[in-house]
Structure formats: structure tokens, C-alpha cells
Amino acid sequence: MNQKNTQLVRVLVGVLGLIFSIIYNAINRENEYVRLESDIAQLHLKDGEHAKLLSLYESTGVTSLEIGVEGFSRSDALFEEKKNQYKAKTLNFVCTNDVLKKYLDSEAQIIVDLTVGKNLADIIANLNITSARCSRLGL
């Protein structure tokens, strides 16, 4: 009977450890999402435009971000210039952000779609970013 109790305690400790690990990872992931959302909101040009995280998707080896640029229009006379500035800012942001750097360090690829506002169909830029690309840029 003593051996069965020992085995039962071991199984119980293992199950409790697993439960606590799942809860900790869920809380940590939510905190990272909130921090990333806040950091992305600070990506803006001086013309009153600002960026917003629309979605974040993680899978094995790939993390996908969709970022909407509010106040940005294709009819803007400086559309191409602003688009290129946002692409450069986004690349710099992904390569230097603490949350995203974790993914890059694990050899994951980060795919970023920049959209006009919240319209996910109106993609103005698609960036495929790896740690190698960040290294080549000195970031």
C-alpha cells in the first residue's frame, strides 16, 4: 500500500506541475500580446497615422502579424513614400522588439502584413523577416 501511495503522489505532483505550467504560459503569452499591442501602437509617422495590431498567429516556425495603419490612404499624394517609411519602421521594429526577438532567436520566420486601416484585404506590404535578414541589416 505504501508503494501505491508513493506512485499516486508522484502522479499528482506531475499533474499539478503540468497544470501550473499551462496556466503560467497562458498568462505570460497574454502579457506578451498586450505588450506587443502597446509597442505597435507607437509605430507612427508624423501625419497623425498610427498602427494597430489586428491579429497575431503563431505556429511551428512561423509567426504572422497583421498590422493596420489607421489614417493612411492609397489616395494620399505621398502614398508610396509613406509606405516605404512604414516598411522600414516595421522591419526595424520586428528586429528590435523584445517579444518578437524571442521568435527570431528560435529561428522562426515572422510574416508581417501591413494593411490600410482594419481592412485585412487591403495589404500595402508583406514582409518576411528572419534573424538572418535582421543580421544583414545590422539590427
Strand percent estimate? 15-25%
Number of individual domains: 1
Give me the secondary-structure category. Answer: alpha+beta
Query: What proportion of the residues is helical, as a percent range?
Result: 40-55%
Overall outline: elongated
Major sheet attributes: 4 strands, mixed
**Measured distance between first and last alpha carbons:** 61 Å
If strands are numbered along the chain, what order do they take across the biggest sheet?
Answer: 1-2-3-4
The CATH class name reads Alpha Beta
Total beta strands:
4
CATH fold name, please?
A: GMP Synthetase, Chain A, domain 3
Question: What's the gist of this structure?
Answer:
This protein is α+β, with helices and mostly antiparallel strands and 139 residues long. The protein has helices spanning 2-41, 79-96, 98-105, 131-136; strands at 50-59, 62-70, 109-116, 123-129. The protein is built from four helices and four strands; from the N terminus they run H-E-E-H-H-E-E-H.
Q: How are the secondary structure elements laid out?
A:
Blueprint: H1 2-41, E1 50-59, E2 62-70, H2 79-96, H3 98-105, E3 109-116, E4 123-129, H4 131-136
Parallel strand pairs: 2-3
Antiparallel strand pairs: 1-2, 3-4
Tell me what you see in this structure.
The model has no long low-confidence stretch (mean pLDDT 85). The termini are far apart. The chain has a four-stranded mixed sheet. It has 139 residues and is an alpha+beta fold. A hairpin with a 2-residue loop joins strand 1 and strand 2 (62-70). The chain has one domain: GMP Synthetase, Chain A, domain 3, CATH 3.30.300. It has helices spanning 2-41, 79-96, 98-105, 131-136, and strands spanning 50-59, 62-70, 109-116, 123-129. The protein contains four helices and four strands. Keywords: Membrane, Transmembrane, Transmembrane helix. The chain crosses the membrane at residues 7-27.
